[in-house]
Amino acid sequence: xxxxxxxxxxxxxxxxxxxxxxxxxxxxxxxxxxxxxxxxxxxxxxxxxxxxxxxxxxxxxxxxxxxxxxxxxxxxxxxxxxxxxxxxxxxxxxxxxxxxxxxxxxxxxxxxxxxxxxxxxxxxxxxxxxxxxxxxxxxxxxxxxxxxxxxxxxxxxxxxxxxxxxxxxxxxxxxxxxxxxxxxxxxxxxxxxxxxxxxxxxxxxxxxxxxxxx
Length: 214
Description:
Elements: E1 3-7, H1 11-22, E2 26-31, H2 34-40, E3 49-52, H3 53-59, E4 62-65, H4 69-77, H5 80-83, E5 87-90, E6 95-97, E7 103-106, H6 113-120, E8 126-129, H7 135-138, E9 150-154, H8 157-169, E10 177-181, H9 186-191, H10 196-203
C-alpha cells in the first residue's frame, strides 16, 4: 500500500483520510499545531498517524493538498524541498469569499491554483482532481442518484495513473474518471467552483457533483 500524507485537517482532509486508511493505505495527517490534532481529528481511525505538515510532506510518497485554496500556494511553496519527487494531489479551489462566506471570485483568473503550484514546485508532479463536488461525494460517489464524474489534470502521465488508482480506492469506477489533459485544464474545473454557491443558496448543503452526461 501507499504512504499518503494529507495537508489539511478540515472536513475534506479528514474525510479522505478515513477512506484511504480503510482501503489499507498508510495515512498521515499533517497538522499545524497540537491543538489541531485534538480539535479536528476526534473519532478518526487509530491507524491514521499525525505529524506536523513539514514532516508529513517529507516522509510520505503522495501528498494531498486539502488546505484552504487561498493560502495553499504560500504554504506549499514553503515545503518545496520536502515535496520534491513526491506526487502532489491538489483537491482545493482558490477563491475569495463573497459577503455570505461562500466562494465569490477566483484567486487566479486566467490560471488556476494547480498551475501556480506546478510552476512553484517544478520537481513535484501536480495532479488536480476531486475539486468539482462537495467533500462527502469524494469518498462516496455511488450515493448520488446520477453517477458523478471526477476530472483529472496534470502534466505527468505516470502521476496521473497513480492518482487514478487512488480514485479507485475512493470508490470511483474507471468509466467515471475523465482525464482532461495537462495541468492547464485545471483552470476549467477550478472555475466550476463559481457555480457552487448559487446551488448551495438555493438547495442547501446537499451532496452534488458536476457530471459529464453522455
